[in-house]
Hints:
By secondary structure, the protein is of the alpha/beta class. 46% of the residues lie in helices and 14% in strands. The chain has a 7-stranded parallel sheet, with helices on both faces.
Amino acid sequence: MGRLDGKVAIVTGAASGIGKGIALRFGREGAKVVVVTDRRVALGEETAATIREAGGDALFVQGDVSSSADTRRFVAATVERYSGLDVLVQNATWSARGRAVDLAEEDWDRTLDVGLKSIYLGAKYAIPEMRKRGGGAIVNISSVNGLAASPQLAAYNAVKGGINNLTRNLAIDYGRHNIRVNAIAPGHVVTESSGAAIHRDPHQTWSFTDACPMGRVGTPDDIAGAALFLASDDASWLTGEILVVDGGMSIQVPEVLVAAHYRRLGGKPAVAPIEDPPAVD
């Protein structure tokens, strides 16, 4: 028996990476999965087909999550096909690198539309359907960048910080309707896109693993496991939380991360290496 048997779930941004990993895990756990992507249609259809080939039930719907009309349409298509909606995973994102002064206005707008406006639109159209079922769960995919900023990612940092507070607000406003809203803040996860960057700069992986207490980077399946928990009845009294899934990276003092950065660049650490404490009798 799967942990999501009988549930209907929408997963946005499920063409690859984290979204695909979540969609596949939900399918294996018994959910009827609606895969939503915008531009990468063939990959979205492939995700849905993979779920069906494994014995699950999945539907692909093309849609732009920053469009009110498209969001209303893919929620309506879900309800028409499966007679309701229980879970919404909002994973779609877009990021333009740049500092505020250098960032083109259209890149700022696109990053906020896809990353943050979409969270509002998804909730706007999904929550009324969840209320008809007596409740539901929304899982928003944020980032550790919503907790602390990285340089030259002005728009992305703003989006992820906004997701965290909107998650809390939705949890407060709709908790009495038995709708739980939580977010996941992943650390460095190797996906198709980030993997390509790592192949160009293998020291990048070494830097993250060196700084991470668990000694490795994350995988889409690591995030899928967290999403499964938040979407399932096991989290029935958990709402408004930002679940950090980063192998312990963000619990460290900044000096550790700075030292790892310097080692990646081949220079000397900015602080003295951390030594084991002396033995105490």
